Amino acid sequence: MFNKFFSLPLFWKFTIAIVLVVTLFGSANLYFLSYSINDLFEKELSTNGLISAKTLADRSIEPILYNDLASLNKLVSEVKRNNKNIAYAFILDANNNVLAHSFPKEVPLNLININKKDQVQTINLEYEEGVTTLIRDISAPIIDSSVGQVRMGFYEDQYLRTLNLAKSFFLGLVVLFLIVGIIAAFIFSYIITKPINLLSNTAKKLNLNQFKITTVDDDKKDSILSWQNPFGVHDEIDDLFGTFNAMIKRLEKTYTELQNAQESLMQSEKIAAIGILSAGIAHEINNPIAGIQNCLKRISDNPDNIEQNITYIELMDEAIQKIKNVVQGLLNFSRKQDLIYSEVDTKKVIENTLLLIAYQLENSRITIVKNYPEKIPKIKGSFNHLEQVFLNLFINAIDAIDEKKIDNKNFNGEIDISIFTTKDYLGVKIRDNGIGIPIEKIKQIFDPFYTLKKIKQGTGLGLAVSLNILQQHHGKIKAENNTYGGITFSIYLPLNK
């Protein structure tokens, strides 16, 4: 359910993954860097400070013993001058009296007693008014503290600045890696998604009504996709393109075979229908021929009666025209035609179909009830194919009524034809009062080779072919039993296609 409502492009997935990885890796390394460098600086500062303080203590022994304060001050000043990290240095005797110092004036009293026991201690020292400096104060005894001690203070700010500079440099690297990672995410996602999108768009453009082979090799060539494969080495994406194109070719071949099979199926159903219509066609032709023979006999009996002969000639011409119409209608119906769409008058399609089955309707004593509106909009379709749909439905209705007459010889069959329109469709309802279809089997009637006919051996293809034709017209058909017997087929053909 989550994937149904939330979609995240591949680029953002790559970007989020890279940001998380770089952030976690950078944070861990920054913590390690801060801890290790800080610890290193601490040790270095303490070690170097102790060495410097002990060195000064050793050098101060002789001047202290000879009470040479000038040499002590010179020594302290020299040490302070040679090391810029030293904030101050001073020497105390055993009674904490200042013997020498590097302060401009006097040694602050609070500084003298601040580090009596600890050798290394961090303090805040106010050198100037309002300015406090962080100092590492280190104490070293002169001999054994019985002579005195050396106190030296080292600036920690310099070390902190160095540490912060290292942190800033590392953070800059992390940001740089993030930027490079996002650019790489864009390139990689493009390399992966562009071919997939091309395949998806190509698949969406496939038109099964006008199928043609569509390859994607030419569309694949752009600057980034060409750059990723400069040496002509195939990868999974190239294999995917090749497989897709091979699939398209197989699909085209399969579709062509399917179309041929469907056309053969429809033609077979037409031939089966012609067999059913043959008796009616013979009747429709024999009656006019008998009339023509009668007219010829009358003319030959009385050739001089011009007025009578003109009347008989007109009757013969009418009979010949009727035969022509029946034969032409049968030829048009039986001819194999491509599915070519044009403007079609549905009422005319129905009326032509009724002419083909006129004999069957008369022989089965079936009444046709028509309910046509005054104005019927034309649709886009194939006249011949729609004629086959209506012929299949009318033949099924006639057979259903004939089966009902087996138990009731005096039963009066009726087929109601209604044409109506909805917002998007032109609808045709064909209702008969035959035997109907069991409710549990009504969903199977459109399956190929499924038939319930008893008095005639049906092919079981009529409704399956009709459904296929209507789907090719973007239409639909449904069947439902009537309340008082029989079945109603409803056909819907789109008005705007």
Overall description:
With 497 residues, the chain is of the alpha+beta class. Among the domains are: 159 residues, Beta-Lactamase; 161 residues, Histidine kinase-like ATPase, C-terminal domain (Heat Shock Protein 90, 2-Layer Sandwich), CATH 3.30.565.10. 57% of the residues lie in helices and 17% in strands. It is built from 13 helices and twelve strands. The strands form three sheets. Strands 2-1-5-4-3 form a five-stranded antiparallel β-sheet. It has a five-stranded mixed β-sheet with strand order 7-9-10-12-11. The chain is rod-shaped, with a radius of gyration of 53 Å.
Strand order of the largest sheet: 2-1-5-4-3
Query: What do we call the CATH topology of the domain at 337-497?
Result: Heat Shock Protein 90
Say which CATH homologous superfamily of the domain at 337-497 is assigned: Histidine kinase-like ATPase, C-terminal domain
What is the correct CATH architecture of the domain at 337-497? 2-Layer Sandwich
Just give the CATH class of the domain at 337-497.
Answer: Alpha Beta
Count of discrete alpha- or pi-helical segments spanning 4 or more residues: 13
Strand content: 15-25%
The helix-and-strand class reads alpha+beta
What series of H and E elements makes up the topology?
A: HHHEEHEEEHHHHHEHHEEHEEHEE
Descriptive keywords:
13 helices; Heat Shock Protein 90; 5-stranded mixed β-sheet; 497 residues; Beta-Lactamase
